[in-house]
Amino acid sequence: MNTDFASSAYRHFLIWGVCSSLALTVCTIVDATLVGNLVGPQGLAVANISTPVFLLYALLGITIAVGANVHIGRLLGASDIEGANKTFHSALGLGLTVGILALSPLLFKDIYFSFLGVTEELYPIAEQYLTVVMWASPIFVIYHILSFSVRSDSDPRLSAIASGVVIITNIVLDILFMKILGWGIAGASSSLCIAEALGTVVLLTHFAKKHTLLKLRLALPSKKDAVDFVANGFGMGSANIFGAVVMLVFNTLLLKKGSYGALYVAIYGVIYTISTIPTGLFDGSASALSTVTAFLTGESDKDGISAVLKKALTVAIASAVTLSILAFAFAPALARFFGIKEDLEIALAAKAIGIFSLGIVFSAINTIVTAFWQSIGRAKEAATMSLLRNCLLLLILGSFLIPHSNIIGLSYSYVLTEVICSLGVLIIRVAKPSKKYICEKYKDDGRSIEMIYPMAPESMARISSDLESISEEWEINIKKTFVINFICEEILLNIIKFGLGETEKIKNEYYISIKLMEKGDDHVLRIRDNVNTYNPFESNGDEIDRGVLELIEKKTKYCDYQRKMIFNYLYLIL
What we know:
Elements: H1 4-38, H2 41-77, H3 81-101, H4 109-116, H5 123-135, H6 137-152, H7 156-180, H8 185-204, H9 223-255, H10 261-299, H11 302-329, H12 331-337, H13 343-357, H14 360-375, H15 379-431, H16 434-441, E1 448-454, H17 459-474, H18 478-499, E2 511-519, E3 522-529, H19 543-555, E4 558-564, E5 567-573
Antiparallel strand pairs: 1-2, 2-3, 3-5, 4-5
Helix pairs in contact: 1-2, 1-7, 1-8, 1-10, 1-11, 2-3, 2-5, 2-6, 2-9, 2-10, 3-6, 5-8, 6-7, 6-8, 7-8, 9-10, 9-14, 9-15, 10-11, 10-13, 10-14, 11-13, 11-14, 12-13, 13-15, 14-15, 17-18, 18-19
């Protein structure tokens, strides 16, 4: 039971995290499929050339979101609600500022398009597609920040719902704009931007709910906040800007291949689109890990942190093996699905996809470990891994292999990069183990002990016996010992009576955690349970029950109920 809370939180956040991450994946696949089949290879090439623009917006949004929410998670875990809100407000202010600044390329479109690699032949289509996207830049940035923050504030389900709204809206409008109204490639960008705006509106509804800990406000970020957000979020967010740089370079190298250049870029677009499926799954798993682990560091739950990492790696590797086999086996069908028609072109695309699929398992390991390092404060290791994996190694290998082997060389570049980085992860694990780092950095200031019991009346005797032993060891006076024991027993009974339904009372999956901590002359009592949302101080008990709870409030210096992660928390200071 020592890691049951951490494991169940990860499972919950994993489900909704993957759903959230796959939103962009589904939108990318839908757009690529419709563009490839309705506009043709030129449209597919423009969509691929435009991908760095979306990656830039993701860099801005995710860097701020991850950097801020590493802090927010730790502060919520330590029950510093005011500090968490200050961080959130600064993140929103910074996100809106950089989102507005991201509109600036509209003032020099020709230069911007040339930088992206748009040729004279592709310019008319690119202008239609990108102009709409550039006007929506603030929405893309704010969406990422809100999505991460809503998850940190214990509502991953709403984040997933927002992603579902983005997916459904994008698909419906894609069909309407492109197929029915005949808007062409401009319809693809318009539908995605409208869908992202509606998803943002859905996320904003979170802040109208009763038990939210984060409140919606804007604040001007300090220089220190901005630096902290970038430092803590760059390891994950930088993958997007590095990916944009790599795509710009690789597209340029492929376009130099004369009449075959557009075909190679189109195949690269197919590979990139296919890669968003494993990337979405791994990012969802990494996001769940990052959210839960950051929270657990605030609680100094070292065993829970290790358990979450193990589960995240298991899920990611199992998914990667499955996807790798499927991509390799169905490579020709995938090429046809995205609008590549000629037999020779299909054979070339299938070979490139098959080679690329060999690196998926290594990609899973690298993604999870980078997110883990980021969440526990090893920002330098995370940033270094991201720089090597998403930029330097890829560029070095690609610059050598693409001129010699074209699109096949590109696939080998990705595979070799992931393999080399996984070897680096193994070396760092041996040389600088994370478990030692966690034990040194995240430990309670004073003495503390946590005990976990099944949610049942039979636990009363064990709780009483354990608390008496602790009180004797810590030399807590008899009066305070009685109060601590009384509170724990009454809260447990109250939850059993009113927090559990009749069918839930016979299950063995509900637990109560009691953590006692020394803070100077005071003792902090934290009671946590995994039943559905339930506040004992708002229960409908009889007069005796209400009187007992009122007595608890009077006998403590501080008493506060919070719903965090997927658990109920009661903090008391005696």
